[in-house]
Amino acid sequence: MEIGANTPAVVTGAAGGLGEGAARALAAKGAKVAVLDMKADEGRRVAEEIGGVFIETDVTSNDSVASALAQARAAHGQERICVNCAGIAPAGKVVGRDGPHDMTLFQTVIDVNLVGTMRVMAFSAAGMASAQPLSDEGDRGVVINTASIAAYEGQMGQSAYAASKGGVVGLTLPAARDLARNGVRVLAIAPGTFGTPMLRGLPEDVQESLAQQVPFPVRLGEPEEFGRLACFLAETSYMNGSVVRIDGALRMGVK
Asked: Can you say whether the dihedral through the CA atoms of 54, 114, 201, 64 is positive or negative?
């Protein structure tokens, strides 16, 4: 797939962090990008800077996602690239000082990170499946979801987050197989420790400590690097059904 004006994109969680990195990278290649997020001020800023549109979206709501995609298609046409970056990462041990893990919180993390990803993917892929092929191979679109290396090496306090991202990993291959007949590819990216706004808000010594755990390069990942990988995956048609780590060879420890 050649990224450009004929491959409109939607990116969830694009008001900052990895989603913003993906939105900017796609726009730099000429794609018309719809920025989907709950954060209106930040989302409008990103959309304005990349020449896209912002649509306030709650990935836990069928109506919100359906409306957002309809608005994106009205503005840019049927999306051919869908990048799912919306997510939350609250901490909590299975049994902590106050007793068992808050089950409402656990359910919320699953609803946002896993069910939300599935919802946007399914709704977007349904639109792609009815579009005209972009190539002689029948390529109609690609969905790139965001997992995490926590899916493989979840640390203490990451039970909910790791479970949700493990679900994204497990979803990748069967979803790719389900959508193969429709010419829609499905992939996932599993990032390590990246310099997102949340992490950049930590004290400098904490950021440095996290960076020192990365074998090489010894630093935090940059959202721009996530964006470039997303573009590579979209452009490389033989990439399908795989989860790609981007982590500087980091394998997280217990805590």
From this structure: positive
Choose the catalytic residue: 68, 142, 160, 161. Answer: 161
Residue 149 CA to residue 192 CA, distance in Å, equals 6
**Catalytic site residue 152?**
no
Domain boundaries, the chain: 9-245
The answer to whether the beta carbons of residues 128 and 182 sit under 8 Å apart is: yes
CA distance 88 to 164: 10
Q: What is the pLDDT along the chain (255 residues), one digit of tens a residue?
A: 999 999 999 999 999 999 999 999 999 999 999 999 999 999 999 999 999 999 999 999 999 999 999 999 999 999 999 999 999 999 999 999 999 999 999 999 999 999 999 999 999 999 999 999 999 999 999 999 999 999 999 999 999 999 999 999 999 999 999 999 999 999 999 999 999 987 887 788 888 988 999 999 999 999 999 999 999 999 999 999 999 999 999 998 998
- For residue 69, give Cα distances in angstroms to 18, 44, 64: 20, 17, 9
Secondary-structure class of domain 9-245 per CATH: alpha beta
